[in-house]
Amino acid sequence: MAAGVATWLPFARAAAVGWLPLAKKTMPKPPVDSSSRSDEILYVNVSGVRFQTWKNTLDRYPDTLLGSSEKEFFYNEDTQEYFFDRDPEMFRHILNFYRTGKLHYPRHECIQAFDEELAFYGIVPEIIGDCCMEEYRDRKKENQERLAEDTEANELTDAPLPPHSTPRERLWRAFENPHTSTMALVFYYVTGFFIAVSVIANVVETVPCRPPKGSVKDLPCGQKYELAFFCMDTACVLIFTFEYLMRLFAAPSRCKFMRSVMSVIDVVAIMPYYIGLVMPENEDVSGAFVTLRVFRVFRIFKFSRHSQGLRILGYTLKSCASELGFLLFSLTMAIIIFATVMFYAEKGTKSSSFTSIPASFWYTIVTMTTLGYGDMVPKTIAGKIFGSICSLSGVLVIALPVPVIVSNFSRIYHQNQRADKMRAQQKVRLARIRMAKKGTVNAFFQYKEDRVLGDRDSDCTALCVKNRSAFEHQHHHLLHCLEKTTNHEFTDEMTYSELCMTESVGFRTSRSTSLSSQQGATGCCPRRARRRAAMRLANSTVSVSRGSIQELDTLHIKPTSIPQQTRSSLNAQAGDLKLNCGEHDFTAAIISTPTPPANTPDESLPPSPAPIPGILRNTRATAYTHDTFKISSL
Amino acid sequence: MGAVVGTLTMQIKQRRPSTDTADDDMEMTMASHRPEGLNQLEAQTNFSKGELQVLYRGFKNECPSGIVNEETFKQIYSQFFPHGGKEREHACAYLSLSLCSFYPAFFSSPADASTYAHYLFNAFDTAHSGSIKFEEFVAALSILLKGSVTEKLQWTFNLYDINRDGYISKDEMTDIVRAIYDMMGKYTYPVLKTDAPKQHVDAFFQKMDKNRDGVVTLDEFILSCQEDENIMRSLELFENVI
Known about the structure:
Chain A is mainly α. Chain A has helices at about 5-15, 55-60, 90-100, 110-120, 130-160, 165-175, 180-205, 220-225, 225-250, 255-260, 260-280, 285-295, 310-320, 320-345, 355-370, 380-400, 400-455, 460-465, 470-485, 495-505, 525-535, 545-550, 570-580, 615-625, and strands spanning about 40-45, 50-55, 75, 80-85, 210, 220, 590, 630-634. By secondary structure, chain B is mainly alpha-helical.
């Protein structure tokens, strides 16, 4: 039943007449309904597509935009209609919800677009009808997974080191992300090499070698060159132990690390060696010792850190656990049934290989998986009949869950591919953004130049402003006001960094670039020079300032993330960023300006007390009200 | 073995469609109904054309087939009295949200409006066809909302007279009153006693049964109601519903 409560309410109220003669007390006064009861047609114009509906239809859901007085904000007096600048295709579904009481999710639409429309019109997505709810939920979950993956991927790979990273954090990051530094990469490859060496040694150990002189029997190589293999094994185990201990030390949460799968594999891989060292050469325990050597093969799982494909496979198996479980369960059932049947069918014959039901298990498994070794063969007719049924059904039972697992694997694999592609595209995106940023910066400088020119020569202004929209004008004027307020000026990153480089004392690294004189003719050079002199300390500890300034524009994506590769000196800028930006979501490039950030206590900076760097940063940041500008220019 | 299981399930599946088709046939015979023309309805009832249009649009939206059977009727009526029992599963979430604001205390009480709805249905279904068509619906509403006092009282008498014999016996009245009390549910203030309906009936029967013959006739009913000022006044309450 659709939720047309409003439709039936008059009927229910009329039916209340039936209670009146029986009423013990007097009835309360009815509510006065002053609004006109006559129904009228409303016109709703959504991006040019005109919809018409009864007012009553919209009034059915007073909690939504269209049902409440909120729609009056969109009323256009001239055309006597409600105008919404939204997608008319989606609006169709929204309006149908009012008409029928059921919200349907159009399958071809993007789930996020749909959600946004619902949010705009004030409709809760839970109202989606049963027919479309499953599809909606699936798509939504998929989308959220994808977003989570993307953010995770972003954080992991390109996540910049926090400026205050302790060696421990750096070490952990190097382990998790070998591409961040060359040392980590070297270590990564070395461990990979040693894993391979260890595994190959384990394998070759058992190959029969030519016997030593004086003996006839073939010896496995492991015994012939026992010392060599022992040395190799020791070396590998040392490396693995060292790696494990380093990881354990660097792990942010040791308990969690110790419980993780990879750490367990690591431990299992190196344990046998130590146990072998400790254990005495005892006859009784040598059997157990041999078993332990088997665990050395687990070292091959260590490769999963190096291979993404292995990780995907492992993840797929984990996510298909239920299907695998079902497969196993159904196979077990089938095996037991058929083994029993075969046993009893073959019971009579002499010299039958089906000696017991567990013995028949082997036959059933071999037959169901269509292996057919032939070591156990039914001889009676009944046995043969049941044997053939067994092999036929085996194919079916195994074929059933496999497509599910395959589709799962395919989905996860494609998701991974997508993540890699996104990472590659990220670089292109950054480059594009940088270019756009440069464009806006240049526009602002152009504006300032024009203003100056305009001050001198009023004719020019008319020509110069021709290409700028009113919005740009106002924006530039705003930035200009900010400059005047703080008595600092904007400049571009190149100028800033160059000036930093050339004028700072004792800076560590420098990427020398030519000093560009693109500074806008403002005639305040002396002021600037003074400021720049004081600013040299900015880079006294900056080693990759260029990179960091450039990477500041990545802040536009996530204002809360810290710029990449910022060293401690640029912490001030990061801190100021937080001060200035708050929770704003910048959507465009960022300009940073030369200011004396309070980085290190440097005697060259005139009014600088010498407190602890951390505190210094913050206090200085507030002293110069806008030390570093982070502006968004659209 | 998989093949065995597969064939078994196939068998079960094949058996089901046969029953489904039987249901389908039954539903097909319940044809949809179209009401008479607007002009005729306007002549027959006290509603204006515009009011009839609004009424029909709502009616058609809810019941596209044009008729309301008793189950649907009960469901509709039950939506206004939040209650437990079987009706609860059918009430849609949004509806209960909006009603929650009106009857917060009642929301979890296991009330039951189906009995009263049953009597209402019989009162609406003047043709006794087992379903209410739009004409019957509108006719009853016309009496209830725009009729004269006498007509309203007559309609109410018909409602109370369950077996349509022209007399309201004490049992019938007790049934009605109990049905009304059922709509209240369990959680009331003061707590509902089990003999409250009976007491209620005794009081009113005494008032209405003038000649003490154990039944109430139409004339007695109308007369006693007209004497009661409260009833007279409250009969005008629901005039502006549409």
